[in-house]
Design a protein that fits this description.
D-Maltodextrin-Binding Protein, domain 2; five-stranded mixed β-sheet; 307 residues; 22% strand; alpha/beta; 14 strands; 10 helices; LysR_subst-bd; Arc Repressor Mutant, subunit A; DNA-binding; WH-like_DNA-bd_sf
Length: 307
């Protein structure tokens, strides 16, 4: 068997294997793909012979992936997805910017009043691009997810992704004047252990002053992963809140909130735009990244200084 024949068997076998694994049976895969059940079975068997591994456990009642089969499926799906993106890239490079961009971002004030308006403006400038925006805050594996672009907060772990800095957020600890009158002055982070706190997904608050670092575990008070609700609770005097500057600056300016422990600096939070390398090759994805990076800081400042 020559190299060309072997490659054809590999490709047909991979396509058949993915179809069967996704469908859960040879019968369902045959119906969905238009191939015969025997044809798919033969193609998967030939693939297993070439690989010299078993990908599927077959019984008369059940079909399931082997451990190797599960790993092979995940890698094959990524490879097929990259081939699809390569085709899109080739077509896109001889035509105007068009197609779909799936983006994941944090919600709340940043997502709804900064990201969303910028995406609306972007779509007005490029009407042939369809942006699908998801505000779910789940941490996704970009290499295997359907997203082309993700906005992430904090340090990035996966160096294989394309990451570009979007903005740096300053974190503030704030409380209402009435709350501070009831609980007295807060002079050291350890004083927070005696106060009700308003916190979201971050329950370990870290402070530093020079070389001194202090961590406080937020355990008592009000927990909800929604910045607007946290802000309202702080304004109502329910506790000390940890919030991004975009939420609190207008209220610090008019005196409705006071900053707590201003000499103890929390770490700033980095906002980044992240894309898998294959999707970053698409002109439309790069165009959106460029647009957000160019306009984000001005829009963020506008929202932060609202009255």
């Amino acid at each position: 068997m020559n190299k060309s024949d072997t490659e054809k068997i590999y490709w047909k076998g991979i396509c058949a294997f993915i179809a069967v694994a996704r469908s859960g049976s040879f019968s369902a895969a045959a119906e969905a793909s238009g191939n015969s059940k025997s044809n798919l079975s033969q193609q998967v068997s030939q693939l297993e012979q070439l690989l010299n591994v078993q990908l599927l456990h077959r019984t008369t009642r059940q079909l399931r992936l082997t451990e190797i089969g599960q790993g092979y499926l995940e890698k094959c799906q990524i490879a097929v997805q990259q081939l699809s993106l390569a085709t899109e890239w080739a077509i896109e490079n001889r035509s105007k910017l068009a197609g779909e961009i799936k983006m994941n971002a944090v919600g709340g004030l940043i997502g709804e009043e900064v990201i969303a308006p910028l995406l609306i403006e972007f779509q007005q400038a490029y009407p042939d691009i369809d942006v699908k925006l998801d505000f779910s805050s789940q941490r996704v594996d970009l290499l295997s997810s359907p997203y082309d672009l993700v906005m992430r907060m904090g340090e990035l772990e996966d160096s294989s992704l394309i990451a570009r800095r979007l903005h740096t957020i300053s974190t503030k600890y704030v409380a209402s004047p009435s709350f501070l009158q009831r609980y007295g002055s807060i002079e050291h982070p350890s004083d927070l252990t005696h106060c009700p706190l308003i916190y979201g997904s971050v329950s370990e608050w870290r402070f530093h002053q020079g070389e001194t670092q202090v961590s406080v575990r937020a355990e008592q008070g009000f927990q909800i992963a929604n910045g607007r609700v946290m802000l309202k609770a702080a304004l109502e005097g329910q506790g000390i809140a940890r919030l991004a500057d975009v939420y609190v600056e207008p209220y610090l300016a008019n005196g409705e909130l006071l900053e707590v422990l201003p000499l103890w600096h929390p770490s700033d939070t980095r906002l980044s735009l992240v894309s898998p390398p294959a999707r970053y090759q698409l002109n439309r994805v790069r165009a959106l990244m460029d647009y957000l990076i160019e306009h984000f800081s001005a829009k963020y400042q506008q929202v932060m200084l609202r009255t």
